[in-house]
Design goal:
By secondary structure, the protein is mostly helical. It is built from nine helices and two strands.
């Protein structure tokens, strides 16, 4: 869909329209609205749309990218940083979202697990710079627990793929949603504090 915005920018330049933010066409918002008005279901047919969005320079705040966001019910954001850390699938959990995450749709237990996980990862992100400068051992006991649990959670969210069994030598494994919620809750509650983060990398459900 970003290519649609980019094409509009190029046409705007050729036709000498005054550009808006980041050089995009001044009609970007209305162009995007017209496109998505056509991507709707009818009484006879239901339509679900999966859109892929190129993010220039990994900048999610790019005007062209932001113009698309209001029309999305859910997003899965792939991250170069997560990929470089060797965590697959390389999904940025904090940047990804779903409008279905509310207690009325997913239930209170699932909702609390998601909110708790996001809060933990945000706290760990704030501690990242301090850890880089002085090391994890210099954190307070409470912050060490937060940082450790965040590493456990990040690694737990990796997945041994069935399609890469021959390349990795790891057997693919499916973990049910209900089991995932239970496992995430255990990590948040500190029941896995004695587990090493690397032990959860590319594994299935918790063994405790």
């Amino acid at each position: 869909v970003f290519r649609f915005a980019q094409a509009g920018m190029e046409l705007s330049t050729v036709t000498n329209h005054i550009p808006s933010e980041d050089g995009y066409q001044p009609m970007l918002s209305s162009d995007m609205a017209k496109l998505h008005e056509r991507l709707v279901g009818t009484k006879e047919v239901a339509l679900s749309t999966i859109e892929t969005i190129y993010v220039p320079s990994d900048d999610l705040l790019d005007t062209g990218v932001q113009a698309i966001y209001p029309y999305l019910d859910s997003t899965i954001v792939l991250s170069r940083h997560v990929y470089q850390e060797g965590r697959f699938p390389a999904i940025d959990v904090l940047e990804s979202f779903s409008s279905a995450i509310n207690p009325d749709v997913v239930g209170e237990t699932h909702y609390q697990a998601v909110m708790g996980a996001n809060a933990l990862l945000k706290q760990a992100m704030e501690l990242e710079k301090m850890v880089t400068l002085v090391g994890e051992g210099e954190l307070s006991i409470e912050n060490q627990a937060i940082y450790h649990r965040a590493k456990l959670l990040k690694n737990y969210m990796t997945q041994p793929f069935f399609v890469t069994e021959k390349q990795t030598g790891r057997k693919g494994e499916y973990v049910a949603l209900s089991q995932t919620i239970v496992d995430v809750s255990k990590i948040l509650e500190g029941k896995c504090d004695q587990v090493k983060p690397e032990d959860l990398l590319l594994t299935g459900k918790l063994a405790i």
